[in-house]
Each structure stands twice: as structure tokens, then as C-alpha cells.
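Ticket closed. Logging final result for Putative 4-hydroxy-4-methyl-2-oxoglutarate aldolase.
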Amino acid sequence: MTSTQDIDLDVLAEETYSAVFSDICDQLGFHEQTALPGIAPIGGSGRIVGWARPFVARSVGEPPSRPYGNEIDFIDSLGPGDVPVGDGTSRPAAAWGELFSCAARGRGARGAVIDGYVRDVAKIRALGFPVSARGSRPTDSLGRVSLDATVASVHIGGTTVVAGDLIVADDDGVTVVPRDIADDVAHRALEKATTENMARQLLLDGGKLADVWERHGVM
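Final structure:
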């Protein structure tokens, strides 16, 4: 297996998509790698492809002595290729917003995936930083939830995300690729996407679906 350092995230974001990654995971026997419906693009633009940095937004009863301290530490620790992936289901407050997005982008993060709510959607969209979430709500997180980034994994949309897993999120939803198989899956996903492109053109040119399936084995 080649190193995950060989994976070109820009190429994957340009040429592949969550569905083709899900298909390859299925082929390799990993059948529970997609989040349930509901986590969708809500701000920014482009496909999210990068390495998971999990956190949990835990419900709290009052603001901490250091406001936003955990959030600041987490976001300042992000690096190129990272994707913050958060479980924000404990309380319906916005666990992500514009300034978090600005800081994350400045650190080289490739987007954020939140199983919960975000705010400042118009500003995030103008920034162009892709964020997938369950929805938006203007309610601040301060005094309602506090970010815990000490966790090694989180559950989002019914699937488990471990630190370092490959995240692929777009209009179809979220696919989570275990890091141990990420190189193999990425290689196969690129091949399958290329085959699907050929099949698409054959169909647009009038080819029969049955013939294309027989020839290329993609659907």
C-alpha cells in the first residue's frame, strides 16, 4: 500500500465524488461508510475531500472561564488537508460559523462537516469555504455547547468517523473512507470515475444502457 501522502486531494475533489467512493467501499466489503441523509452542503462551494479531524460539541450549562477556548485551540491546530468533522447533535446551537471558517481556511483546511447546525451561511458562502451541515440556526454556541476535540472518533449520520479517515462530501452526502484503505479506494475511485465518464458519453451519443452496462459494468 502506498502512503496516504501520495493522495492528491485536489485531483480527487476535481475528478471524483462521494457516490463513487461509496461504490468502491462496497466492493471492498465496507458497507456502512455513508452518513444518513440530512448532512448537505449549506455554504461555500466545491466538494470536500480531506482528512477527518473529529470533535464533539458537548452541551454545557454556562460559558466556560475562557470563552471559546476549546474552539480556538482546535481550529488553530488544523493543518493543510484537514476536515473538521463534528457531532453537534447534543443541543441545537450553531457549532460552526463564519470566523471559524475563515480561520480553518487560513490554516489549510478543505471544508467542514457538521452533524448539527451552523450560522453565518451567507458569509461562509461568500468566502467559498465548503461546509456541509444539517441546517442553520443563528443561536450562538457560547454557554450552550463546548467543543471537545480530545475524541479519537465521532458518530455522524449513523456512521463512525475516526481521526485520519478520508472524508468525501458533496451534494449527494458524506462518504467516510477508513484511512487504512484510503490509498486503494482513492485509486479505484479515480478509475471508476473515468469509466463512468466514458459510459456517460456513450449514452449521450445514443448508446443503449444495456450495451454500456455490458461493456463497462458501471451504473
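The two ends are 28 Å apart (CA to CA). No further action required.
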